[in-house]
Amino acid sequence: MGKQVSIKDVALRASTSIATVSRILNNVGYPVSDELRTRVEAAIRDLGYRPNRMAQNLRSKQTQSIGLIVRDISVSYFSLIAKGVTEEASSRGLMPLVCSSKRNPKLEIEYMRLLAQYQVAGVILAGASWEDPDYKKRMEETVADLRAQDVRVIGCAPQEVPMPCALVDNAGIGKQAFDVLHKYGHSHFAILGGEAANMSNRLRIQGFTQAADKKGATYKIAAGAFSWEHGHAALSAILAEDPAITAVYATNDHIALGALRYLEENGRSVPEEISVMGTGDVAVAPYTFPALSTIKMPFEELGSAAVKMIFDPNLGTDTVVPFKCSYVERESVGPRP
């Protein structure tokens, strides 16, 4: 790796003083001509200079930090990953910097670059990759840029751009859900998915439908948001079209909870008339009525493992640390009527 570009290098390239470069970077309002400002900005761009916005450089071992980017910190899945990350970071004397991208792919990439400016040791991506060519291209460029700065990028969900990941088998989750429901005699399903472009969602649906196809089972799929509202509206639409469906698989628990609400409002008995299974095992799942049967995912463990991976000297660029999921049987799944 080449020598890290310093503010002194920028000043030399722009033929000005370090103090002037600092004033322009910090936008302190000091009078600077447009020509000089343009020259300094060009030098910053040409040299690829990124200011160290922390008081000390990570490599000095005086201050250490890591970055975590979640899609929505208010969603329990991401909160649990954040808990695992922050607890592991704290045990290592690290400061975690947590960003919530509001499910905006562009903002997610902007946060990655911003965290690199803060000299983090690594950036953890809690959300899965988006199926979008422009997003993939920009992510490839950003990951390469961060690696060039010795900033490791770790995934806690499947990514199209190669990177080390702490992962569950999302296709396996879908297959496991089908196997449980099929064992209860179900063969006609509603599959309620989240965002169609989300890689975790696609893999779970793929695992379910491939297993269903092998058994000659039938299904209808509705993609949308990972939300209660989507689960409610999607199941309403599917059952209006095909009331003979006897089981619902939701690719996350929030969708499943919306489906349960719809069935309760419309006098459909669960699981006597129709079974419902979720994915994730959110904190409220045991307290719904009926209690939600679901595939439990180890969110805190994924977050903790991702922090450990940042500091693993033997980590490869495509290392995967696998985690198992387990079926939690409660009250919302039963035999086919």
From TrEMBL:
PROSITE patterns: HTH_LACI_2 (PS50932). Pfam families: LacI, Peripla_BP_1. InterPro entries: HTH_LacI (IPR000843), Lambda_DNA-bd_dom_sf (IPR010982), Peripla_BP/Lac1_sug-bd_dom (IPR001761), Peripla_BP_I (IPR028082). Keywords: DNA-binding, Transcription, Transcription regulation. Residues 5-60 form the HTH lacI-type domain. One of its GO terms (molecular function) is transcription cis-regulatory region binding. This is Putative HTH-type transcriptional regulator DegA. It comes from uncultured delta proteobacterium.
